[in-house]
Design brief:
The protein has 413 residues and is of the alpha+beta class. 18% of the residues lie in helices and 26% in strands.
Length: 413
C-alpha cells in the first residue's frame, strides 16, 4: 500500500493537499463526494488529503446520497449491468451496482449510470491507499467533517482488570470476542523484582455503530426477552410476532386481566414494562464489525417527537491507554416523508445546517452503562457512529456496514 505521502506526490499535479494529514498512515480516511460541485475530497479527520473532479449519475441513473463504505475492491471489474463495461480500480459501496472507479470520460457534470467516475491517475492512487471499510459519504451539497467537542461521546479504554491473577485464569481482551488471553503462572510466587508480560490480542477491525428510533421488530425482541425471564415460552428471540410469541402474550394478558388478543397492545406493553421495572425504549443501538452485526440494545431518545436528523461521526487517534480519541462529524440533509414521520411520532425537525446539529443529536441519546462499557472497550481507529431517524435501509446486509440513504427536499414520499 502506498503511504499518504506517496499518494500526495502521485497526485501533486491535480489535487489539493493537507500535508499535516499525511503524517499517520494508521488513521482511517474518509471520502466525501459532492453531487452539487461534482467533486471528491479525501479527509484525514478534518484535514484535506486530496481532491479531484468526478462525474456522478446522470438523470434517470442518479447516484444515491448517503453514508456508505467500501465493501469490495478490484483492480479490474466488468459491469454486470452494462454490457461488461470495464471499471478499472473499482471500489464498490453497494451490492446493487454503485462504485467508485476510473472513468475514460470524466466531465464535471453528471454523466455516469450511477457510479462515481474518477480521473485515471486519481483512481489508481486512491485505490492503493484505501481499505475495505473506509467510509464514503455522498451528499447533495458540499459538506466537510468538523471536530466534535461533545463530552459524552464514546472514549476508548481497556476493560477493567480481573480482581485476581491465578493459574489458568483468563483475562478478557478489549471486549467480548472469541479470543481470550491466558496468563500462565508458576505455583510459587515470582522472585522480588521479576516482571511479567501479558500478550494482548491483535487489534480488531473497527466497530460501526447505528443509533436510531426503536423499530417494531426491536420492541418485539425486547418483549421476547422479558417474557422469557418471566417464564413464558416465546420460541426464538427473533423480534417476530410468531405463534409461540402470540400464545405467550395471550397467556400474560389473561393473567393480568387484559383482553387476550396476542398483540403487543399499549396496555400490554405498559404492564410488562411496569412488572419488569423497566422503561419502554424509544431508540435502539446496533453494532457491526467486519460487515456483520455483533450486538444491539435499547437506548433512550429525549424528546422523541423531535427528529434526530442524519449524522455521521468517525473516531481517529484512538488511544485506550490515554482514554483519548478525536471525533469528527458531519450532518447530512435528509428529508423524511409525512407517513414515516407519523409512524415514528415525529412532529418537528431541527435545522440540519446548524453547526452543532450532530452534537445536539447525540446529547439527546442516553446509552445504558453496560452497552457503553462494551462499546468503549472495542473502540478503535475508524470506528464510526451513524445517527438517523429511519434506521437501516434495505441495502444494509451481511457484507456491508450500515448503509443510510438520504433524500434531499422533493425526494421524500
Amino acid at each position: 500500500m502506498l503511504t499518504r505521502l506517496t499518494f500526495g506526490v502521485a497526485l501533486a499535479t491535480s489535487v489539493l493537499f493537507g500535508t499535516s494529514a499525511l503524517a499517520d498512515d494508521l488513521d482511517p480516511l474518509q471520502i466525501f463526494v459532492s453531487k452539487d460541485t461534482q467533486s471528491l475530497v479525501v479527509y484525514d479527520g478534518d484535514q484535506v488529503v486530496a481532491s479531484t473532479n468526478v462525474s456522478t449519475g446522470k438523470p434517470g441513473h442518479t447516484t444515491p446520497s448517503g453514508i456508505f463504505s467500501i465493501i469490495e475492491k478490484a483492480r479490474m471489474h466488468h459491469s454486470n449491468l452494462y454490457e461488461s463495461a470495464p471499471m478499472p480500480f473499482m471500489q464498490r459501496i453497494t451490492w446493487d451496482g454503485v462504485a467508485l472507479h476510473e472513468g475514460s470520460y470524466v466531465p464535471s457534470y453528471p454523466a455516469s449510470h450511477g457510479c462515481v467516475r474518477l480521473p485515471a491517475k486519481f483512481a489508481r492512487s486512491l485505490w492503493d491507499i484505501t481499505k475495505r471499510g473506509f467510509h464514503v459519504v455522498i451528499t447533495d451539497r458540499e459538506l466537510a467533517p468538523h471536530a466534535m467537542q461533545t463530552a459524552d461521546l464514546f472514549k476508548p479504554r481497556y476493560p477493567k482488570p480481573t480482581p485476581e491473577l491465578m493459574s489458568d485464569a483468563d483475562l478478557r481482551p478489549a471486549m467480548a470476542t472469541d479470543t481470550t488471553v491466558e496468563v500462565a503462572m508458576n505455583e510459587t510466587l515470582p522472585k522480588l523484582g521479576a516482571t511479567a508480560a501479558v500478550a494482548l490480542p491483535k487489534e480488531e477491525a473497527p466497530i460501526k455503530i447505528l443509533i436510531t428510533h426503536a423499530s417494531e421488530r426491536s420492541k418485539a425482541l425486547e418483549v421476547q426477552h422479558m417474557l422469557t425471564r418471566l417464564g413464558y415460552d416465546v420460541g426464538d428471540h427473533d423480534g417476530v410476532l410468531g405463534p409461540k410469541m402470540r400464545a405467550a402474550i395471550k397467556e400474560y394478558q389473561t393473567i393480568h386481566s387484559q383482553k387476550p388478543t396476542g398483540e403487543m397492545t399499549p396496555a400490554f406493553a405498559a404492564s410488562i414494562y411496569k412488572v419488569m421495572n423497566r422503561t419502554q425504549p424509544t431508540g435502539w443501538i446496533y453494532v457491526r464489525r467486519n460487515f456483520k452485526p455483533i450486538f444491539d440494545g435499547p437506548v433512550d431518545i429525549a424528546s422523541p417527537d423531535i427528529a434526530l436528523g442524519t449524522h455521521f461521526l468517525q473516531a481517529v487517534h484512538v488511544n485506550a491507554a490515554q482514554n483519548s480519541v478525536d471525533w469528527f462529524g458531519v450532518t447530512l440533509d435528509n428529508v423524511i416523508g409525512a407517513k414515516t414521520a407519523k409512524r415514528l411520532g415525529i412532529t418537528s425537525f431541527p435545522d440540519a445546517t446548524a453547526p452543532d446539529a450532530a452534537e445536539q443529536a447525540f446529547a439527546r441519546i442516553t446509552i445504558p452503562g453496560e452497552l457503553r462499557d462494551k462499546i468503549e472497550t472495542m473502540l478503535g481507529n475508524g470506528s464510526s457512529i451513524t445517527i438517523t431517524d429511519t434506521g437501516t435501509e434495505s441495502k444494509t446486509t451481511d457484507g456491508t456496514d450500515f448503509i443510510t440513504v438520504t433524500r434531499e427536499p422533493g425526494q421524500a414520499g
